[in-house]
Design a protein that fits this description.
The structure is a homodimer. Helix content of chain A is 31%, strand content 25%. Chain A is an alpha/beta fold. A 6-stranded mixed β-sheet of chain A has the order 5-2-1-9-21-20, with helices on one face.
């Protein structure tokens, strides 16, 4: 439909933090960029647990990719899904047809994985997309409704037993917020069952929660969780999950609501790139984040297995993905200018933050470690600051201020049905 | 599980404007109220079209029924669906079991109807629930995405032809907002197709749009719609709707997006009450809104067919439903106090307002009629004022101010899939 564009074509697969950072870095009229995503929006994933727990509405943490890139005239957005990559022909196979590239940036991320127990998925939803968040929100809110209708005390308690599997940041945030909802948001609203009787169990197979943090911060996080009313069980493996129970080692607990925050597996596209992948399916890239034998193909974000000079892996967090995306953008621009060798990627550790609940968080910036209220303030400022768009920042601040004063959560709306999840 | 409560029991079916108004009116410790709804939230339906057109997020116009009634200690909320009513035994058959009443208020409203063409439902979604709004939002946003991918000009135009069936308030609001999205929100974001080529067609079988308004206001509304870029076709009946075309009288128009704002049918529960119903399935009630032969059963809101002293029907609008709900609450309280005869319901016409688009609206208060910017301001103030909850009002105002200045619509997020609608 149009004359061929003679400019080099960079195709970016995935509009998450890595892909979007690469697209923005490549804002240069001497090349054209096509960003492909199967969803129409960029998602601010660090706050997704707030949508799942009814504290924020979905549009507060998501923005259309087209809107974000509308002023970047060399960029096009395609709503499509990459099925395969033909490295020899330099083209991506999209669901709707092939797309040729000169440079390719693969940033399709990771999703939750059930360690070979795919049948657990229907009972224990994970949290990666907005639809996942709606599913969790619906199940949590409906569990309290079922408890209200149930006359049998044991069956009622099964509706009030919530199990969060996985003690990383997402698991800690979900468990802490569930405890707050049960203890503070809902109690006055139910007449027959008491939401304060809810048990929130956080189960972690490893020896401590928040394993990415220093040991003393893990201990502080566990203490803050328990103060909020969460039972923390470390060193406990989940061995079975059914519709109304979960098996923890030798013990079986009656629970109708299990949330999955444990395993992560890289996008299946990683295995189609011909390069070695690690156990989680992440692509082992060269120091400049390109593929061995294919200097025109890069992998960034959670799909990339990259290492820091000391040999530690670059963590699968939003700041790392952004840094990788920007790095690859710079490498491509340098190549197009004819600058020879690629600079290696160097991860700059900006510190780590995890929130636990109301006024509870942990923070680690190099040797500086702190927790409780100061960490919570830093967490709040950082997350609002990095949210895309002035409007979203303002609305999120307003929502949080409102929740803080009233203990209410404004997005407690049940929509959709579980038929979708299970079909 | 508890000792029997000796107080008279009022069961209210439906947590819309009518049912909720009745529940609030019955805030009296001498009786107990059970409000049954199959959804967990009250919906501010007059702004539902804004969720469907990505201007507002769902939690801004919906609030949990439990939260609204949490301070009313004589009220209980049940998340359940009424299947039938046993008038002789004085009990409601809920999906989860029977519920006995002393007084019953049926407020289950209306839904969209396809005049015997139920196969049109999958191609032409209507707008009654939040899930309906998400379906419309998804289809509209994806239509522009399909147009961007389509090379064939005729097929592309089919994605850009939007047909809104029904020229009442909902149809007018949807058509006006679609035109604004196509002309102002999206143009800079697409590289291949031009959203300004979208045709928005508003089809009405009757002789004019907004038939509930005076004739000169209908004419003004049509003019304002055309100024916004909507083609208005009155006196045109839709005779067929398929996946990629719609038949208007003798003409077939290629269109992939048809929205249904035409027919309304009363809740099927109306036919289970043993009283005569009108053609739309509304229950013909006595002047005090009770059933003939059953003074303890009342029907309020869109399900009731009531008349004004002059013989005109009470319109199916939110203020009428609220007034009916309050009236029935008063009648029940009077009966419990032993006051003899029931007062007849008198509808107080507070005027009618319909918005058309940016700075365009029509208003009619008795003999006072106006349109354009003044009507739009009145519409805005009235709708923000009647929204439930301080927080929602503030957020909605903020969203509108932001949309107004930027022409952006913040909820342009595609979630879910059409598999649900069609299963």
């Amino acid at each position: 439909m149009s004359q061929p564009d003679p400019r080099p074509h960079v195709v970016i697969l995935g509009g998450g933090f890595g892909g979007l950072a690469a697209a923005r870095q490549l804002d240069d009229p001497s090349l054209r960029v096509t960003l492909v995503d199967r969803r129409n929006h960029h998602l601010f994933q660090p706050l997704l647990y707030q949508v799942a727990t009814a504290g924020l509405s979905a549009p507060s943490i998501a923005a259309p990719l087209r809107q974000i890139l509308r002023k970047q005239s060399n960029a096009t957005v395609l709503l499509d899904e990459a099925v395969d990559v033909d490295l020899a022909a330099k083209q991506v196979m999209l669901a709707q047809g092939p797309l040729a590239y000169d440079y390719l940036v693969v940033a399709t991320g990771a999703t939750h994985a059930y360690f070979g127990h795919d049948d657990w998925a229907r009972h224990a939803p994970g949290l990666k997309t907005l639809d996942d968040a709606f599913t969790i929100r619906r199940r949590v809110l409906l569990a309290f409704e079922h408890a209200e209708r149930e006359d049998d005390p044991a069956r009622r308690q099964a509706w009030l037993n919530f199990v969060v599997v996985g003690g990383g940041a997402t698991g800690v945030e979900l468990a802490g917020t569930l405890a707050e909802i049960a203890r503070h948001t809902l109690p006055r609203e139910f007449r027959r069952s008491d939401p304060r009787r809810a048990n929130i169990l956080l189960v972690e197979a490893g020896p401590r929660v928040l394993p990415a943090f220093a040991e003393d911060l893990s201990a502080k996080a566990a203490k803050q969780l328990e103060k909020l009313g969460v039972q923390v069980r470390t060193g406990t493996a989940v061995t079975a999950i059914g519709a109304d129970s979960v098996r923890l080692g030798e013990e079986t607990l009656a629970s109708r609501t299990v949330l999955w925050a444990a395993g992560v597996a890289a996008s299946p596209l990683g295995k189609r790139l011909g390069a070695p992948v690690d156990r989680a399916g992440r692509v082992q890239v060269l120091p400049d984040l390109s593929l061995p034998d294919h200097p025109e193909v890069f992998v960034v974000g959670d799909l990339a297995s990259a290492f820091r000079p000391g040999g530690q892996p670059v963590p699968g967090v939003a700041p790392a993905a952004k840094q990788m995306g920007r790095h690859v953008g710079e490498v491509i621009l340098a190549r197009l200018r004819g600058d020879g060798a690629s600079k290696p990627f160097r991860y700059r550790d900006d510190g780590a933050l995890a929130t636990i609940g109301r006024m509870a968080a942990v923070a680690q910036f190099g040797r500086l470690k702190f927790s409780g209220l100061p960490a919570w303030w830093v967490w709040l400022v950082a997350h609002v600051y990095f949210l895309i768009g002035f409007r979203n920042r303002l609305v999120v601040l307003l929502d949080w201020a409102w929740s803080y004063w009233t203990y209410q959560r404004h997005a407690r709306i049940v929509t959709g049905s579980d038929r979708t999840d299970e079909s």
